[in-house]
Specification:
Length: about 160
């Protein structure tokens, strides 16, 4: 394992792709969202919060995520980027919808709770691309919390 500290512009791009729609969402929450937030599992919330903090920091402080040369590993980064584009498509679809809880927890291309699943998978692939065990583990922690919370919300809807 060969990890390099330094700024990651790729990490910054991924974080911007993640955060900009979420900032817009904060003014466009689905109807009845607050009712579901009250029932969130505290352990999942803790894992989500810890994962968010770690993934945000780690994405920026390791230069391993930057493009140094084109290789077979580059295909992993390309797939991660395509997944982030799908995440943007998910948000465009949500913002054009009636903004209901059903819209919020819809799937995209068969991917359940796409708004939660897509960025977790993309950051996991970013960690694999950068061969960075810290980002991989942090993303798994984030995924357990974030996807778990949103699957519970979806279950409550049904």
């Amino acid at each position: 394992m060969n990890i390099h500290f330094g700024f990651s512009y790729i990490g910054l791009i991924f974080l911007l792709m993640l955060m900009l729609p979420n900032i817009i969402w904060s003014k466009n929450k689905p109807k009845g969202y607050d009712k579901y937030v009250k029932n969130e599992n505290k352990v999942l919330l803790l894992l989500e919060w810890l994962g968010e903090m770690l993934v945000t920091c780690l994405s920026l402080i390791f230069s391993d995520f930057n493009i140094n040369k084109i290789s077979n590993w580059s295909s992993i980064l390309l797939i991660a980027f395509i997944i982030m584009i799908l995440y943007e498509i998910y948000w465009i679809r949500y913002f054009k919808s009636n903004k209901t809880m059903k819209d919020m927890y819809s799937s995209l291309l068969g991917i359940p709770v796409a708004g939660a699943t897509l960025p977790v998978v993309a950051f996991l692939l970013l960690g694999i691309y950068g061969r960075n065990i810290f980002l991989i583990i942090s993303t798994i922690v984030l995924g357990i919390g974030h996807i778990g919370i949103h699957l519970n919300h979806k279950k409550e809807l049904e």
